[in-house]
Amino acid sequence: MAELSTVARPYAEALFAVAKQDKAGLPAWAEQVQQLADIVAIEDVRVAMADPRLEDAQRASIFLGLVKPEASAAMQSFVTLLVANDRLSLLPFVAEQFHALKDEAEGVAQADITSAFPMSEQQVAELVKLLEPKFGLKLKPHVKTDASLIGGVRVQVGDHVLDTSVQAQLVRMRDKLVA
Fold this sequence. Notes:
The chain is α+β, with helices and mostly antiparallel strands and 179 residues long. It folds into two domains: 2-104, Peroxidase, domain 1; 108-178, no CATH class. 60% of the residues lie in helices and 14% in strands. The chain has eight helices and four strands. The chain has helices at 2-21, 26-40, 43-49, 56-65, 73-84, 91-106, 121-135, 166-178, and strands at 108-115, 138-145, 153-157, 160-163. Strand 3 and strand 4 (160-163) form a beta hairpin. Helix 1 (2-21) crosses helix 6 (91-106), helix 2 packs antiparallel against helix 6 (91-106) and helix 4 (56-65) crosses helix 5 (73-84). The longest helix has 20 residues, at 2-21. The radius of gyration is 21 Å and the shape is elongated. The two termini are 37 Å apart. This protein is part of the stalk that links CF(0) to CF(1). It either transmits conformational changes from CF(0) to CF(1) or is implicated in proton conduction. It is found in: Cell membrane; Membrane.
């Protein structure tokens, strides 16, 4: 998978550079890129796009016909480029990297919060309020529950992990006792 991400990176960066200059704004572009990624994720679409009887122009036309509302001219050119280079299957990776570039430009980071117990919206908001100064970014929380944590939370923001779970504390205690 890392290889596909590496191949997708220049496409995402080029698309992001164009999107920054467009008056429609990054959120509109992010929405369009995600829609394209969602369309290419459909099995029937992937099969149709791999049909050897189709010319590149036909592939691009069929694919763009699935986009509602109609894609912008720049996005149409982008899809045509991907089809010509046989890279349409990279769209999910391009979308992922585009969103990461957008978040970075906006000073936002995704925070994966895993809790031992379900958290209310108020608890999540309070936790995010405490964490934002620590990371120096505006955080978008994604919360899930994992009972194996026993208690506490584990927060991952990019490469940084803050693990205050009981499970992690027990592992640290075990490591100290063994050492």
